[in-house]
Amino acid sequence: MALLQIVCKTNDFGKSRIVVIKSQLGQPIAAFSGDDVYWEVPEDLPKMTKLMVDGKALYIHRTNYQIIDKKLL
């Protein structure tokens, strides 16, 4: 019996971030910006990624994403 593990990456430093959602072919679809950004893979939805941007949830499935420091742009 395999145990499911919740994977989570937090924004420990509180820096402003930009999240770019891309198609599987690499085309940008959307961009979001926030000061409190993190991602996790929910235990009950293992094939989806939950992105939290300033307290608002964004669930993505079969897409790529990048989280970039705002100061790098």
Task: Walk me through what this model shows.
- This protein is mostly beta strands and 73 residues long.
- It is 0% helix and 51% strand.
- It contains no helices and seven strands.
- A four-stranded antiparallel sheet has the order 1-4-5-6, with no helix packed on it. Strands 3-2-7 form a three-stranded antiparallel sheet, with no helix packed on it.
- Strand 4 and strand 5 form a beta hairpin.
- The protein is flat.
- Mean pLDDT is 83; it is low at 1-6.
Percent of residues in beta strands: over 45%
Q: What is the strand arrangement across the widest sheet?
A: 1-4-5-6
**DSSP helical segment count:** 0
Cα Rg: 13 Å
Q: Which stretches of 5+ consecutive residues score pLDDT under 50? A: 1-6
Quick recap of the structure?
The chain has strands spanning 7-9, 17-22, 28-34, 37-41, 49-53, 56-60, 64-69. By secondary structure, the chain is mainly β.
